[in-house]
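Hello K.,

You asked for the raw outputs rather than the summary table, so here they are, unedited. I folded two proteins back to back in the same session to keep the settings identical. This is the first:
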Amino acid sequence: MSRFTEIKDLLVSFEKDFIKFYEKGNKSAGTRVRKEMNELKKKAQEIRKEIQDIKLKAKEAEGGATPTM
């Protein structure tokens, strides 16, 4: 669950800027939120790739290649 914790911690770290932008209208905080959301996107892509790699390794360990039609 460490990957889940990474995502959760990342989101929690953005909270102050979200509040500043959405509730107080601070435009600089909006810029930071956009940057932080890009970090979140990169982390999500990294996790997606890791999941796919794990699935492929498990499939190879089972001795199965995908059948072609």
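The second followed immediately with the same parameters:
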Amino acid sequence: MLTLEQIRRQGLQALRERLGSAGMIRFLAQFDNGGGDYAKDRHEWVDRTSLAEIRESSRRPKRRKKT
């Protein structure tokens, strides 16, 4: 029976062999929960933003990012 460390190493090796290093990283990034408290952060933003400000920002044209 494999240890958790052996499973982890073999799994990463299999991903790297099949997807390449960049693909492996992109695949693993899907499972990162990130940090912080989104609900708390959102409430802080929402609580200091008026409904009029939200309406105004929705009327403004979106700025395109340069690539």
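Residues 4-58 form one domain.

Happy to rerun anything if the numbers look odd on your end.

Regards,
P.
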